[in-house]
Amino acid sequence: NKVSNTHSNTLQPSYDLSDSYYIIVNFVACQLFALLMAVWFRIYLHPSKTSPFIRHVVATLLGFYLALFCFGWYSLHFLVQSGLSYSVMVFAGLENMHKYCFIVTLGYLILCQITRVYVFDYGMYSADFTGPMMVITQKITSMAFEIHDGLTKREGQLTPGQKYFAISRMPSLLEYLSYNCNFMGILAGPTCSYNDYKAFIEGTCYQPRHQENANGKENGKYKQTEPSPKNDVISKLCTCAISLAVYLSLYKLLPVERSIDDDFVNSTPFHLQVVYLYLAMLALRPKYYFVWTLADAINNAAGFGFNGYNKDGSPRWDLISNLRILDIEFATSFKLFLDNWNIQTALWLKRVCYERCPINPTAATFLLSAMWHGVYPGYYLTFLTGIGMTMAARAVRHNIRPYFLVSDSYKGIYDVITWAWTQVAISYTVAPFVLLAVGPSLKFYRYVYELLIHCGVGDTMSAFLILKKYIHFASNSVV
């Protein structure tokens, strides 16, 4: 693997394995090291004992060390991307700084992704150096818009959320690098607002704060003592262990590629193919559960992620959580699934695109998401499909759901049906995202289309056309 062969070989076994496995081993080892450092950071470099300057320096240096260990000299891309963007922030005029910064940051990420995919190794393992760059891109662009809001707009021009996130002064270079490359989030994020990170570094994150879903009464009642993240960290580490065990047990048994295998398609009834596709996607998700939950636990162990108190007085450590597993697996709509999956990325897309795009924000948001993920054609097929799925789901929910709210039993039936259809729709939409290339993705679409026509469940094509006409009519009625 030409891209990733500069990583540290300290943990390399004596027997030969592919370079992708070395990256995985290094990644997990670094995250476990970061977890230990997070506990040390919270106890020995507590804001009451250490200045924000020292905390910024240590968090940044540890982050650079982990990046070098995992990605070698390719981690210099993190500095180049951050340096270029900071130069734009400093030297460009405030009126257009956020736009220029957005173009430079996202453009540099896409250039690296093009080089990684089409010059070095098409189809390589995704945990390469562009993974951290994706999170850094979110942070840089978020900060650029927040600085623009804070320094160029009046309060009346901002939404309540934008007022809270607005930055009132230009961060120093150290603060900027610490925010982008700290050891808690350099490898897997999650992204966060600069004001939240600054409050964590300065030790003011336990004070009452604005949050869309925070309970101000409980915050005020229990704010006197600093809560411990121990229970939440242990709980999240247990979730990580279960997720990793499930993933390692199932991912080889249920490869998505089997859904386009000729022998499998020709010998398997349509309904069993649908079930298999759902199970194959279900087997992939624990990988993300493991990575994102471990990243969340690391930040919590350092004291970052406090989000107020529950009604019973227990602390909430979900400020920067990236997913809600039960809400994902039992989602009864396309929107509910997306709202609970990769939460911080969804919030980033909302803040920098959906809330600010004057023309068709839904399509623009899906397009930006595809560009941010990478240059594989499968990403674009997935997100283009997602636009149609989202619009159709809105129309059906708006027009059909009210008929099922007349009683609890009807509501229960509706929830079961919509859960099943949501899981099928998500599996169908995400399949090209996993298959990556155009050929396999189009083959998948062709098989699904042919099976819808020829499966022995009555005149499926007629039903499909009726549904298509209904969705078209419903969409027009919503508009």
TrEMBL record:
Transmembrane segments: 20-45, 57-77, 97-119, 378-396, 416-438, 444-467
The keyword Transcription is assigned to this record: no
GO molecular function per UniProt: acyltransferase activity
Main location: endoplasmic reticulum
Protein's membrane topology: Multi-pass membrane protein
InterPro entries: LPLAT_7/PORCN-like, MBOAT_fam
Gene Ontology terms describing biological process: lipid modification
Keyword vocabulary terms for this entry: Acyltransferase, Endoplasmic reticulum, Membrane, Transferase, Transmembrane, Transmembrane helix
GO CC annotations on file: endoplasmic reticulum membrane
Superkingdom, taxonomy of origin: Eukaryota
Compartmental location: Endoplasmic reticulum membrane
PANTHER family for the chain: LYSOPHOSPHOLIPID ACYLTRANSFERASE 2 (PTHR13906:SF7), PORCUPINE (PTHR13906)
Name of this protein: Membrane bound O-acyltransferase domain containing 2a
High-level lineage: Eukaryota, Metazoa, Chordata, Craniata, Vertebrata
